[in-house]
TrEMBL record:
Name the UniProt record assigns to this protein: 3-beta hydroxysteroid dehydrogenase
Source taxon at top rank: Bacteria
Species, as recorded: Litoreibacter roseus
Upper taxonomic lineage: Bacteria, Pseudomonadati, Pseudomonadota, Alphaproteobacteria, Rhodobacterales
Family classification: Belongs to the NAD(P)-dependent epimerase/dehydratase family.
Keywords, alphabetical: NAD, Oxidoreductase
Keyword ATP-binding found: no
Amino acid sequence: MKKLVLTGAAGRLGSYLREPLSRMSDELVSSDIAEDLGQLYPGERYQKADIAQYDQMFDLLDGADVVVHFGALVDEVPFEEMLGPNFLGAYNVWEAAYQRGLKRVVYASSIHAVGMYLRSDFIGTDAPHRPDTFYGLAKCFAEDLGRMYWEKRQLEAVCLRILSCARVTNTRALGTWLSYDDLIQLVTRAVDTPTTGFSIVYGVSNNDRAPVDNSKASFLGYRPKDNAEQFAERILKQAQPADIKGLSDTRHGGPFAAVDLGESCMIQMNIVDDKKEN
């Protein structure tokens, strides 16, 4: 592969993807709205670009084979704030990818596209959308955009419905955890699988308590290695009793399912900022 592009490269997940992606192509162009990324990996260069600006995406994707699109607001915010980066940004990436003749978009979708399903529902990759927030609605929009661009314009897409890619700090994460090593494997398979058409795959590790079914995406070759059960004894010992009537404890979206639309949720998530330093 001659050129890969990664958006959202300054984010926590992007920090773990840069090095492995830099080894998959002659050139990796990492992009974000930050001024710089600091030290770069061999074969990597940085190009500052705003996903909400189509002309900047068009320039960014010049000569690329695949774009790994992780750039977005990653919290629930009012719709007007979400519109530019998460809705319009997705369109800009897909349209620029089509105009530039890319083969595929690999997209960081989310469990929040189906976050209002009961956690006891073992949902598959073909479960109809049930977003829990404006954030989840943006993921639904991008997934449908990806399906349409495949069916109308033959631009492939792999949508990674990531569950919880962060340290395990709560009982929900015993089922939803995606380790960084498994994240890297997931993105690698989404990039190097010869043909994908339009595909959805859940971003989750090989957890005993995983609440989703990836069997229909098995052709991608994603075989997660890590298991959150290693944290179960510690997490369960310190856990508060579950609220069997509360949305946070009973829906796939967890706290996102319980907040009011437009209300920030990240403060409740207790996410450890363990961004990789290169």
